[in-house]
Design goal:
The chain has nine helices and two strands; from the N terminus they run ααααααββααα. With 188 residues, the chain is mostly helical.
């Protein structure tokens, strides 16, 4: 019985090739994102401890900080906007916002046109934290791309933009999850 099960696991009908996971682009991008993100978190760990912010909270702050000096700074950004830009789950965004608000790093202003929605902005204390971490983020990115030419960086940007557009299109039409695998040709 054990031998039969072993044979079933090891056989490949129609000589199908297994998925080479280490070359599978979604896997590689996920691994890259994880290691880059983890490295960045370690680079600002001192500030994370000092200011009491974690990765999701920094992502919220970074988008709010990007508004500083822009025409939309006064209006702010909604939790929905931040979730769409960060691709974080709604619960994670809500927790990060609640923690930042509790720490006095962001302020919430109710949207007068839709009271279910609020606009978020950095407080003065939040802006100080943001401007403390920005140089760390910039240095981390400079170190990350060290040794790459401008041509390499432009190619990387084109490839990432292509992947983002293709993935968004697949997500929008649902083809990535609703596509049936190709039917195998079984000899009868």
């Amino acid at each position: 019985m054990i031998q039969k099960q072993k044979n079933r696991v090891n056989t490949r009908p129609n000589k199908k090739a297994p998925l080479p996971v280490k070359q599978f682009i979604p896997y590689r991008l996920n691994m890259l994102a994880g290691v880059v993100s983890e490295g960045f978190v370690k680079s600002y760990a001192q500030y994370s401890t000092e200011f009491g912010i974690d990765g999701p909270e920094w992502r919220v702050m970074s988008f709010l900080g990007e508004l500083i000096g822009s025409p939309v700074e006064q209006q702010g950004m909604t939790a929905r906007d931040i979730g769409a830009r960060t691709r974080m789950q709604k619960v994670k965004v809500s927790r990060a916002i609640a923690a930042l608000e509790g720490s006095g790093l962001i302020v919430r202003q109710v949207n007068q046109n839709d009271r279910r929605e609020a606009f978020l902005n950095l407080t003065e204390a939040g802006a100080k934290v943001y401007w403390t971490i920005v140089p760390v983020a910039t240095k981390y990115q400079q170190t990350l791309v060290e040794g790459l030419s401008e041509e390499d960086l432009n190619a990387f940007d084109r490839v990432v933009s292509h992947f983002q557009a293709q993935a968004a299109q697949l997500l929008a039409i649902g083809s990535a999850s609703n596509t049936s695998p190709p039917k195998s040709k079984v000899a009868s």
